[in-house]
DNA sequence: AGCGGTAATGAAAACGTTATCGACATCGAT
DNA sequence: ATCGATGTCGATAACGTTTTCATTACCGCT
């Protein structure tokens, strides 16, 4: 705990009166070191508080025992999934790291995941779980990866997702059951499989009920609060507004509720709102949000479990897992006002 | 995106027909490189998808632009705080990383934070926020650190915490107001300032109401679900049980509710339970948990903000911030049954 | 022609590790 | 005595970067 610089393996070597290689061998439990020196070295290590540097170590050996969760931001969905991943890692010898790379904009053409993977893979990380990545193929074959809600496109990464289309149908069924006919859709990040599937599910369900979707009432955000502001305004101040809005995720739905409040539009009095995800915040909003719940914790656990199999080079039978959703009715939906 | 190994700076150099140093200079916008080569190099970089390796880079230069949140586990409290930290980092050029080191047990005498700091500081990380660390002094002076709910002891790290004692008083006042006299306390990790302050607040409030605390009804867990199991059983199957249990954090309180259910003890019918924190899970439990809410998001934001000041070598006026708590009454508390 | 000055580039050392391999004892067996 | 094993240990070369410093080329001067 000397307040100056870090203590390196060389310091330990000098203090113990042996070579650097010896320290390294002791640190890594390699054999070929006598009991005696081993003991002495350990004492010095403890005394000096020496711990090997990850960067230096990982630069040399390419197994680190660390798996990374790469997310664009620590937002509620990602953190819930993270809890699940952490649960699954419990007891296993891996360390868990979550890296958020969304904010960095260095003008590169690639997405944040591409850069993060390139920077971390094979050095800091042994394997990674990507949350809502816009990349679609694995860059290295030595590097195990699993995607949660992957990009829609060619290429392939083993992935875990919710039954997005089915969930969307649940939402529409609920609204139609309440008597809504004119239903708007606020979509998510256009590149994600989930956003596409939810929109498709929305359209299918509408058609199934014999309802037409007014394309003027189909707008798209990017799954974030900020990104939903514009679309929400658009929907809420439309000439012929909808009586209900189905947002492709909770964050967007919550912003719809906020914007509605700003505009003096009552929820669910004048417009019903239903979301998708069931993040913790949805329960706390006023009014609380009716939403399609997806098992975020379970999704995280499954992702980690598949990743472990991949890392062990085991055959991964189900390589595109899809988990069920369910409708959670709260206070943001009601029968439409009779006009 | 060749599926073999990573592309290094040397590959780029070879492909561009220049030296390694030149590539490095272009990557870091150093001057002394002609427009022409600069352009050509950038093309090759893009084409090859080259991104510099964090480990290698951070090994050399000791500024990385990454700040770390060091937590023992991705549990609800930590992830909420993380959201706040992330909010504060938004728009700033730093990258955010959360590293969980709780599970690693390598027999060293030091806590996980000590090891994590030693491994990451000055190499991967520019600065760190420690959540509930059991360490108490800063290891390097070159390394900015802020603690959230620090260890109780000598030494000093700038810290952010909730008004723990005050919050505990709110809890006791609420229970006493409902008519409870025999109140048990389930404490937290004994080394943490928060756990100590909450216990002290509990005792003071009890005394303030002229109530004696039965030491048989004061037990301690470690803030985790698992760690609360034993103490919960102890409390719930005591010879002369309490009519209300105040747990030092929500996780413990939630486990008390679970154990009560297992034992067929009704909450709040036979025993009232109040927690501390107001994590998202408390709202979802059955019955929902009455708890002392602390502003976790705000705590995260403040921690990040103080850390930024520290990193900028600014004077940090308040260096031990304390934020207010408030009582949230839900369904796990009620008046005691008349005997 | 010779000079200094500037601009562009490259060679090489360093960062803190680990792995390979060779050096040196020691020792039992021939 | 000599030999080969065996057991400990240390030099050294990587790993992929950045930085310092030297080198080269070119230019405009006298």
What does this protein look like?
Two copies of one chain form a homodimer. Chain A is α/β, with parallel strands linked by helices. Chain A has three domains: 9-52, 434 Repressor (Amino-terminal Domain), CATH 1.10.260.40; 66-161 and 297-322, Response regulator (Rossmann fold); 164-294, Rossmann fold (3-Layer(aba) Sandwich). Helix content of chain A is 40%, strand content 16%. Chain A is built from twelve helices and twelve strands. In chain A, the strands form two sheets. A six-stranded parallel β-sheet of chain A has the order 2-1-3-4-5-11, with helices on both faces. Chain A has a six-stranded mixed β-sheet with strand order 7-6-8-9-10-12, sandwiched between helices. In chain A, α9 packs across α10. The termini of chain A are far apart. The model of chain A has no long low-confidence stretch (mean pLDDT 91).
Briefly say what this structure is.
Two copies of one chain form a homodimer. With 339 residues, chain A is of the alpha/beta class.
């Amino acid at each position: 705990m000397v307040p100056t610089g870090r203590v390196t393996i060389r310091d330990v070597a000098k203090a113990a009166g042996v070579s650097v290689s010896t320290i390294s061998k002791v640190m890594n439990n390699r054999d070929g070191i006598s009991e005696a020196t081993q003991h002495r070295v350990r004492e010095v290590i403890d005394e000096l508080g020496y711990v090997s540097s990850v960067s230096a170590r990982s630069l040399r050996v390419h197994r680190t025992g660390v798996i990374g969760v790469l997310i664009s931001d620590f937002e509620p969905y990602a953190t819930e999934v993270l809890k699940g991943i952490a649960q699954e890692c419990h007891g296993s010898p891996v360390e868990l790291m979550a890296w958020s790379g969304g904010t960095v904009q260095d003008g590169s053409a690639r997405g944040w995941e591409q850069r993060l993977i390139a920077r971390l893979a094979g050095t800091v990380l042994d394997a990674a779980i990507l949350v809502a990545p816009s990349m679609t193929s694995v860059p290295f074959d030595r590097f195990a990866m699993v995607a949660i809600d992957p990009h829609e496109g060619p290429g392939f990464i083993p992935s875990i997702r919710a039954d997005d289309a089915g969930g969307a149908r649940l939402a529409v069924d609920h609204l139609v059951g309440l008597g809504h006919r004119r239903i708007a859709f606020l979509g998510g990040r256009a590149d994600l499989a989930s956003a596409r599937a939810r929109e498709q599910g929305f359209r299918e369900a509408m058609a199934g009920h014999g309802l037409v979707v007014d394309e003027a009432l189909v707008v798209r955000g990017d799954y974030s609060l900020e990104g939903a502001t514009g679309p929400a305004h658009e929907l809420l101040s439309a000439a012929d507004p909808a009586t209900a809005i189905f947002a492709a995720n909770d964050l967007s739905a919550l912003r719809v509720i906020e914007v509605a409040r700003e505009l003096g539009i009552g929820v669910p009095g004048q417009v019903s709102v239903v979301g998708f995800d069931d993040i913790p915040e949805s329960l706390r909003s006023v009014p609380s949000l009716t939403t399609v719940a997806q098992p975020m914790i379970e999704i995280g656990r499954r992702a980690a479990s598949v990743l472990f199999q991949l890392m062990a080079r085991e055959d991964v039978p189900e390589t595109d897992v899809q988990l069920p959703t369910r409708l959670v009715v709260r206070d943001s939906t009601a029968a439409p006002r009779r006009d």
